[in-house]
Amino acid sequence: MKAMVLNELCSLEENKTPLELTELPDPVPGEKEILVRVSACGVCHTELDEIEGRTPPPRLPVVLGHQVVGRVKETGSEASGFEIGDRVGIAWIYSACGKCKFCLEGNENLCEDFKATGRDADGGYAEYMTVPEDFAYRIPDVFSNVEAAPLLCAGAIGYRSLKLTGLKDGQNLGLTGFGASAHLVLKMVRHRYPNSKVFVFARSAKERAFSRELGAVWAGDTEEESPKKLDSIIDTTPVWKPVVEALKNLEPGGRLVINAIRKEEVDKEYLLRLDYPAHVWMEKEIKSVANVARSDVRGFLELAAGMSIRPEVQVFALEEANDALVELRARKIRGAKVLKID
Ligand SMILES: [Zn+2]
Ligand SMILES: [Zn+2]
Questions:
Q1: Ligand closest to the CA atom of residue 154
Q2: I need a surface site. Which of 25, 56, 61, 214 has the fewest CB within 10 A?
Q3: What's the predicted TM-score (pTM) here?
């Protein structure tokens, strides 16, 4: 099969073609696995972190890609959940142990043995991939392949972030940063919590205007004070300033959820501005969100199918994966970038 393979870590600034088009043997499904003919695979910021070594794959070469939609081509001898030809999706969670306390309580995203698709196991930048059948999902018919792919990452992690805020209908939610995941959170809130108001903090005036179009009641710059106190806030930025600045807007007992796989060191000094009475006192909480559990992927797909979510997509061929990554890094964002493979 054809695959775009990462052979070594590098800076995308210096190397604009980090992935190499390679002919690999077709993967063979294990007993409880399925073989998937990949139709589409979303391109995510996390791939940049993998290539540039901030979230390095444990072994190389590796096939990246964790927002995969395809058709079941073959089933393992003990896999019985899908028929050949079924359409399935695969997300960031590739597998977990299934036995530890986290797995048993449905928080397999916290499992010590958590494996990520396209990092710890070969992913969807290829014509075929295998996955344990328990970690594949049926895709609602309303979505085309390229529409469904980007929902599998930003949507599922947004869904989990929103769940972790504990937001109730009528409460106020803040969003710091307004990228793909925050868009989807705003849409979900409007649908599920029609009496809640959403307040957006973003550096870019364009993003602020866009959030107002999508129904945010207010949008301001990172350090601004929101006109109302917020019951919870979701931070999707890679830096510290928005975290510190957001805390002053929280209600007593409010919670800030950080949805970021890592935080940069560049503005870490901003944490020294943390003022205990203004930012932390009155039982304010900070919590991170790590990975996704299967229930988040299923929950989001079900919710999205009942809403008018239609992601804007920009389609690339498999062979153009490097171009998509370079554009993503340069923040040339015209909808979610998706590789159309079949
Ligand atoms: Zn992702
Ligand atoms: Zn486990």
A1: 1
A2: 25
A3: 0.94
Q: What is the CA(39)–ligand 2 centre distance, in A?
A: 30
236 alpha carbon, closest ligand: 1
Output the CA 160–ligand 1 centroid distance in Å: 13
pLDDT in tens, 64-94: 999 999 999 999 999 999 999 999 999 999 9
Q: Which ligand is nearest to the CA of 95?
A: 2
- To which residue do tokens 């800076």 refer? 11
CA distances for 44 relative to 66, 209, 272, angstroms? 8, 24, 32
Can you give the pLDDT at residue 91?
Answer: 98
For residue 312, give Cα distances in angstroms to 151, 206, 297, 336: 11, 17, 20, 6
Determine whether 329 is exposed, middle or buried from the number of CB atoms within 10 Å of its CB (0-12, 13-18, 19+): middle
280 Cα: distance to centroid of ligand 1 (angstroms): 31
Give the Å distance between the CA of 164 and the centre of ligand 1: 19
Are 235 and 229 spatial neighbours (Cβ–Cβ below 8 Å)? no
Amino acid making up residue 9:
L
Looking at the chain, how many residues does it have?
Answer: 342
Closest CA to 152 of 233, 82, 93, 106: 93
Give the pLDDT confidence of 45-68 residue by residue, as tens digits: 999 999 999 899 999 999 999 999
Report strand pairing: 87-90 vs 62-63.
unpaired
In sequence order, the 6+-apart residues with CB closer than 8 A to the CB of 168 are 193, 196, 231
- CA 274 to ligand 1 center in whole angstroms: 30
Average pLDDT of the chain?
96
**Ligand that comes closest to the CA of residue 107:** 2
